[in-house]
Amino acid sequence: MTNAQLSPAEQKLDNWTWFRMYLRLFAVQGAWNYETMLGNGIAFCTEPALRKLPGGIGGERYQAAMGRQARYFNSHPYLAGIAVGALTRAELDSVPPAMIERFRTALGGPLGSVGDRLVWASWLPLCSLIALGAFGLGARPLFVIAIFLVTYNIGHLALRAWGLRVGFQRGLRVADALGHPVLRKGPQILGMLAALLAGLSIPLAAREVIGSGRQFSAMIILLAMVGGVFLTRLGRRVEGWRLSLVVLAVFVLFSVIR
Amino acid sequence: MMLIDLLPIALLGAVLGMDVVTFPQAMISRPIVAATVAGAFIGNATLGLTMGAVLELLALEMLPFGASRYPEWGSASVVGGSLYASQQANSGGALAAALFAALVTALISGKSMVWLRRLNASLAAREHDELVRGSGRAVTGLQLFGLSADLVRGFCVTLATMTLFTPLTRAIVASWGTDARYSRAIVVAMVAAVSAGAIWKIFHLVSKARILFLAGLAMGAYVLVTTT
Q1: What is the ipTM of this complex?
Q2: DSSP states of B158-220 as a string?
Q3: Which residue numbers in chain A have pLDDT < 50?
């Protein structure tokens, strides 16, 4: 893109500023807390761009913008880039403060729910199951780690970069971006893939852990399925890992004192 | 292991514990990665990976949704992976004992994240006037404090639990009275049940999930039968 094609706001930001904003996005939850949640992180990420406001660091506009951006905000951390991009654009375009406040309030919820569904409930479990499947097929440790980290982070890094770019390009009209097919259809497709892969990977991984006791495989898988149904019926009343801790404590005690 | 031997493990726990929330959330803290790396530190990445797979099956249940409280798997996986890798692979109670240590660590570490979040909140409240005035220094200071404190948190949790569980795991393994095959089978059945339940909870609303899960299971059963 030539300089003439860039908007006035885009012209203010050099590559170094973009790079710093992108890097800071990885630490957006650095000061996460129950009061302001991501608020301070949003201010931290927009800060390199806000230095370009008239008056520079310490100027009146810089301070007013930083004060606004450090207030309460919550979203999915990977999609926080959309908010950072859009809010930076709004500040550089001198959008009225009241409008920025309303925009901030409206943006958090959708970014949280879309990100949770796409990343935590779809992409992460799918990548975990891919790695467990590789482990179950006897892959070497380095390969298992590499397949998980490379696959997962292709999506992760791209999502953060896309969010920052699309947020800045669309500014206050960024809500349209949440209708992107990947965000809308992605969880459904990834969920179907993960369901298929779960049936395949969990038994294979279980068999690989059992090792020398492989004659138990069928019985263990059957037990696991029955246990899985039991835990599903319990719903959110019991967390499986806590129950596992209790069962394990009893089993360890039994095995030591018998 | 001497205290000095635990320091590199504690440092690894600190870095991977940080990845869970504060920086960079690249999922190097996932058990399948963290426990394997911890195992490699001890000199046995394969055993680390085995522990990582066991913990990963459990971790599928507790995904890091927003403000929800969840176990901290990064430091816990380092503890589990390094303890398991430092035992004899075929010793009866090694898997169960190391998993127990990892789960206790996950519990403690999860609590410590809540304390850290409260500490961040109180610090933010103290800096409130500066933040309202739009002080870049206050914003950056809070961020750096949160990041550093999380690093220290992970270090302390890993060091403390490793100090506690290194001799305890050794003692448990030495006095273990259950057959090794049964011990592993019980642990595996338990974690596989948790992961199967978790997958169902996550994907039951996805269309065709049930049929796809069963199709995958049939494929898995075929591979098991033909390769065992």
Answers
A1: 0.96
A2: HHHHHHHHHHHHHHHHHT--S-HHHHHHHHHHHHHHHHHHHHHHHHTTSTTHHHHHHHHHHHH
A3: 1
